[in-house]
Amino acid sequence: MRNHIGSMRRLTTAWVFLLAATVIYAAVFVAFLLFEHPGFGLAHFYYLAIALVALGFGPRWGSLAGALATALYSLGVMLNNAVPTSELFAISAPVRLINYIAMGALLGWFAAHYRDANRELHILAQRDFLTGLPNTRAFELAIDRRLETRQPFALLVGDMDSPTGEDREQALRRVADSLAGVLDADVDLARVGGEEFAVLTPCRSVEEAGQLAARLERVLCERSSFVTFGWSAYPREGENALTLYRAADERLYARRVLRQPRRIGPQAVGA
Q1: How far apart are CA 227 and CA 236, in angstroms?
Q2: 227 near 159, Cβ under 8 Å?
Q3: What tens digit of pLDDT does each residue of 99-158 get?
Q4: Which residues pair with 231 in a beta bridge?
Q5: How far is CA 181 from CA 73, 153, 154, in A?
Q6: pLDDT tens digit string along 21-31?
Q7: Residues forming beta bridges with residue 62, ordered by sequence position
Q8: Closest-CA residue to 175 (of 123, 228, 245, 122)
Q9: pLDDT, average across residues 223-239
Q10: Cis omega (within 30 of 0) on the bond before 235?
Q11: Mapping DSSP to helix (H, G, I), strand (E, B) and coil, where does residue 133 land?
Q12: Count of CB atoms within 10 A of residue 62's CB?
């Protein structure tokens, strides 16, 4: 939703720039007809219109804006008796055409490049650098989107057991890859803490959420990754993010307490 709003704002800004450029084109053209004389230089104000179009729509439109400015300048020279038409056949005419088009293309390219870089930075700011999964910030936006739809869903919070004899980063990547491989496309998955993962999935009941948690734990266990999940269901166990997180965390803590003796016991006996 927020990405859609951001796109709408950028589009609105671009059309505002185009409207402003249209006004500038018209104002400069009229002023050129009424007041221009050799050496006055009113045609330089076309650069403002070219810049606005290039900033709003990119290099192609910037180039077209430069060509339009050249056409308006040429028409103004023919209609303004104070400006000799010989200007159209002098070397300054093609130079002006090149300057207008080059300025529009270059400024449009820089503007488009800046928007692309800003978009990439926005994506990177919402990614966990280690696993490549969305991070806490992105997950908060995802849960907000789920709440806005008011459709039932489950929140699963998983805590990975600290690995023994294995690199922690490698273990985290394996868990992330395993979860991403078994979850459906309509599920939101993120790393939300040091060894914590969170899942948002369409779900009709608390029992269904528990079954998913058990399946994920089983799949991860088969791949030598041990993760304990807690879960909560919207709207039955909460109607806001804080309440859902609290319910999932409480269930996670309770299940860890119950499961830990079963994991430690055999190892202790074997020792």
Answers
A1: 25
A2: yes
A3: 999 999 999 999 998 888 887 777 777 788 888 899 988 899 999 999 999 999 999 999
A4: 156
A5: 61, 20, 19
A6: 999 999 999 99
A7: none
A8: 228
A9: 90
A10: yes
A11: coil
A12: 30
